[in-house]
Write a structure and sequence with these properties.
The protein is mostly helical. The chain is built from seven helices and two strands.
């Protein structure tokens, strides 16, 4: 189609621009150079209206046309100079512009291609940054696991300690209540008056023995405080010492449990802090990787679209 139109335009140009001088013996054809240039302009406009062609096809068609005309009989006629004008206009002017436009379009394609490749480079850099955050997450994860193991051990010891604490508390309460009861019993004046009051029918010896065994305890000594066992002093001191011992054991356990509880709570807080840092690094790594992929997809899509538009625009111009 392009070749046919070019042939038509060249021939038409030669026909329109020729001035025929006839006599009865011969005809002479003269081509007006200005008309040739006008024809070339129309020729260029016709090229723009053609469907896009690759520059190689365009150059071949033009070359075939011009060289055909140059080698034909037109070269030996006055029309030969017009053909030369058109040929020079096409080869030196129009083809140069086409070649320059093609080169410019190719440069744009190369730049767009480089920008498209740059999307991948940017993605690699962003993913590498995300990987560095992942390294931090992995390190925090390891510390967090070890921390939770220590926390678990402290928690187990803490639970066991408080179980013992609860047992010792009950023992202390019982022992000290017993001491309180003994203290109330042996220190009650009214009760003691009843003990030392002699019964009406009670003989002196029985009265003395009863008071001695009740207040001083069993004969033979061995009681706490230097008197007999089960006496007032023995019962009192035994209850007192039992209460004090139970109280000390409970207080020691209480201090131990408080210390363990503080250690456990501190360890738990430290583990929680590590977990927060780990979770934060994990989220940041995931978000960074997601952003890298989304940025790449957006960049690649836009640059690919630009690349396609430049290519289609070049094809439309016949570059």
């Amino acid at each position: 189609m392009m070749t046919a139109k070019m042939n038509f335009l060249v021939v038409a140009t030669l026909g329109w621009s020729a001035l025929a001088i006839n006599d009865s013996r011969k005809a002479s054809i003269i081509v007006d150079p200005l008309a040739a240039k006008d024809a070339a302009a129309e020729f260029g406009e016709a090229l723009k209206q053609e469907k896009p062609m690759k520059s190689q096809e365009f150059e071949k068609d033009v070359t075939d046309l011009i060289m055909g005309l140059s080698k034909a009989e037109f070269g030996a006629t006055p029309m030969g100079s017009s053909v030369t004008v058109i040929k020079d206009l096409i080869e030196k002017d129009m083809l140069g512009r086409v070649t320059k436009a093609h080169s410019s379009n190719q440069n744009e394609l190369n730049k767009a291609s480089d920008l498209t490749k740059a999307c991948g480079s940017t993605k690699k850099v962003q993913l590498a940054a995300a990987a560095q955050i992942t390294v931090k997450y992995v390190a925090q994860s390891k510390l967090h696991k070890n921390c939770r193991v220590d926390e678990s051990s402290l928690y187990t010891r803490n639970v066991a300690c408080h179980k013992e604490w609860l047992s010792l508390k009950k023992i202390k309460e019982l022992k000290c209540k017993a001491y309180s009861d003994v203290s109330a019993r042996v220190g009650n004046q009214n009760s003691n008056k009843q003990i030392v009051t002699k019964g009406g029918s009670e003989v002196v010896e029985d009265y003395v023995k009863r008071m001695s065994s009740t207040i001083c305890g069993k004969t033979g000594g061995g009681g706490n405080g230097g008197h007999g066992k089960t006496g007032f002093l023995d019962d009192f001191l035994n209850a007192k010492e039992a209460c004090e011992k139970a109280t000390k054991e409970f207080n020691d356990q209480d201090a131990k449990c408080k210390k363990l509880n503080a250690e456990w709570r501190n360890k738990k807080k430290a583990c929680n802090d590590l977990q927060d840092a780990m979770d934060d690094a994990s989220c940041k790594a995931a978000v960074a990787a997601k952003d890298a992929c989304e940025s790449y997809a957006e960049c690649y899509t836009s640059k690919k679209t630009s690349l396609r538009c430049i290519r289609e625009d070049g094809e439309a111009r016949g570059d």
